[in-house]
Design brief:
The chain is α+β, with helices and mostly antiparallel strands and 377 residues long. Helices cover 30% and strands 23% of the residues. It contains nine helices and twelve strands. Strands 1, 2, 3, 4, 5, 6, 7, 8, 9 and 10 form a ten-stranded mixed sheet that branches. Strands 11-12 form a two-stranded antiparallel ribbon. The longest helix is centred in the C-terminal third of the chain and has 23 residues. The protein starts with a helix and ends in an 18-residue tail after the last helix.
Length: 377
C-alpha cells in the first residue's frame, strides 16, 4: 500500500495527475496565438495598441507659472537688456559695458564669455541668446581695425530682430572717475533729457531716440515722488551723427519754499557716440510692433489728439469766426456809449413835454381822456 501511494504522488509531481494545470512558455503562447486563428490575433493587437496609447503627463505647477509669465501681456513691465562681448573687446569697451549694467540694474544682464557674433551678417545666434536669457534689448561691444571701439544697440520683436544701430565709442569716463560722488540708487527711475534740434530733423536719430527711451526708462510708473528722482541722463545731438551722453546725480537743497533747489553733479558714465551703420525696421513691421491691443489700460483714440515721445498730450482745436459784439462780458461805464446817448434823448423829450404843459395852464391829462371832437365838427 505504501508503494502504491508513493507511485501516485510521483505521478502527480510529474504532471500526469488530475487537476494539475500546465503553464505554457511565452514562445508557445505566441505560436498558439499565431496559429489559433482570429481570436489569438485580436488579443495580440489589442495589447500592442493599449501600450501605444500613453496619456501625456500633466505639467507641474512651476512649469505652468513659467509658461504663463512668458505669454504676451497688454501692459508689459520693463524690458531686460543683455550685454555681450565680441571676440575682441578692449578695456575701454568693457568699462562701458560694466557701467551701463550697473546703471540699468535690475533690468540688465551681462555675459562674461566672449562670443563670435556678427549681428549685421547673421542674427540667429544673437536671437537665440536673447530668447534664452529672456531679454528684448542688447548691447554688443567689439573691436576691429576697420571699426574700432564698436558698440551695437538693438532690440527684438516677437523673438526676431527689429532694428539695430552701430556706434563708435570715444571719450569714455567711467564710474570710477567720479568716486567721491554719490551714485544712482538701485532700481530708481532716471530723468531723461534730449537736447538738440537733430532729434526731430533726421529719421535715423528719431529711431535712436526711441531706442534710448527703451534702454534707459526702466519700468513704467503712474506717479513719481520728487525725492525718488536721483539721477538724470542727458543726450545731446551734435548735428546728425554725434551724440553726447552724460549722467548726473540730482541733489536737493533747501530753498526756503516748497520746491527745493536742484543741483546736478556729474557721476558717470560719460561717453560720446558716433552713428555708423544701421538696420532699421520696415514700415509695416514698425507699425505692427507699435500697435497696442485693445484691453484694460488702453484708451480709445480721440480725434485731433496725439501724444509725443515724452507722454505729453497734444491737441488741435478748431474755432470758428467769433462775433465780438455779441460776447457777454462785463462792460465798464466808459464803454456804455450807446446807452448814455439813449438816456440823453429820453431826457430831452421829457423836457419838451413839461414846457408844453406850462403853456397850456399846467393841466395834466392822458391821451385817453383827451376830447378830439367828432367828425361833424
Amino acid at each position: 500500500m505504501a508503494n502504491a501511494k508513493n507511485a501516485k504522488a510521483a505521478a502527480k509531481k510529474a504532471g500526469g495527475g488530475k487537476g494539475v494545470k500546465k503553464r505554457a512558455s511565452p514562445a508557445a503562447a505566441k505560436g498558439t496565438a499565431a496559429a489559433g486563428g482570429i481570436k489569438g490575433s485580436k488579443t495580440a493587437v489589442s495589447a500592442v495598441s493599449a501600450k501605444s496609447r500613453v496619456t501625456p503627463k500633466k505639467p507641474k505647477a512651476r512649469v505652468l507659472r513659467l509658461l504663463k509669465a512668458k505669454e504676451p501681456k497688454v501692459v508689459e513691465g520693463g524690458k531686460q537688456a543683455l550685454f555681450l562681448k565680441g571676440t575682441k573687446c578692449p578695456e575701454l569697451l568693457q568699462t562701458v559695458l560694466r557701467d551701463l549694467t550697473k546703471l540699468l540694474k535690475p533690468n540688465s544682464k551681462m555675459l562674461s564669455r566672449k562670443n563670435e557674433i556678427r549681428p549685421f551678417e547673421d542674427t540667429s545666434s544673437l536671437e537665440f541668446l536673447m530668447d534664452k536669457n529672456e531679454c528684448a534689448l542688447f548691447c554688443f561691444a567689439s573691436h576691429s581695425k576697420k571699426r574700432p571701439h564698436n558698440l551695437i544697440l538693438g532690440r527684438t520683436y516677437d523673438k526676431h530682430m527689429l532694428d539695430m544701430i552701430e556706434f563708435g565709442c570715444s571719450s569714455v569716463e567711467g564710474l570710477d572717475s567720479f568716486k567721491e560722488m554719490e551714485k544712482k540708487r538701485y532700481g530708481s527711475k532716471p530723468c531723461l533729457v534730449f537736447v538738440g534740434e537733430g532729434w526731430h530733423q533726421d529719421l535715423t536719430l528719431e529711431r535712436v531716440q526711441n531706442l534710448f527711451m527703451d534702454f534707459f526708462r526702466v519700468d513704467d510708473v503712474d506717479k513719481v515722488a520728487l525725492a525718488g528722482i536721483d539721477a538724470l541722463t542727458s543726450f545731446t545731438a551734435l548735428g546728425t551723427d554725434s551724440i553726447l551722453i552724460r549722467n548726473y546725480h540730482v541733489q536737493y537743497k533747501k530753498s526756503g519754499g516748497r520746491v527745493p533747489n536742484v543741483v546736478l553733479q556729474p557721476m558717470g558714465p560719460n561717453f560720446t557716440l558716433t552713428v555708423r551703420r544701421h538696420q532699421l525696421a520696415a514700415p509695416d513691421l514698425w507699425r505692427t510692433a507699435c500697435k497696442q491691443p485693445r484691453g484694460e489700460g488702453v484708451k480709445k483714440k480721440v480725434k485731433n489728439e496725439s501724444t509725443n515721445v515724452f507722454g505729453d498730450k497734444l491737441g488741435r482745436i478748431h474755432v470758428g469766426r467769433q462775433d465780438l459784439g455779441a460776447m457777454k462780458v462785463k462792460r465798464m461805464k466808459a464803454l456804455r456809449k450807446g446807452r448814455d446817448e439813449g438816456e440823453e434823448e429820453e431826457g430831452g423829450e421829457e423836457g419838451e413835454e413839461e414846457e408844453a404843459m406850462e403853456e397850456s395852464g399846467g393841466e395834466e391829462y392822458d391821451d385817453d381822456e383827451r376830447d378830439y371832437g367828432s367828425d361833424d365838427d
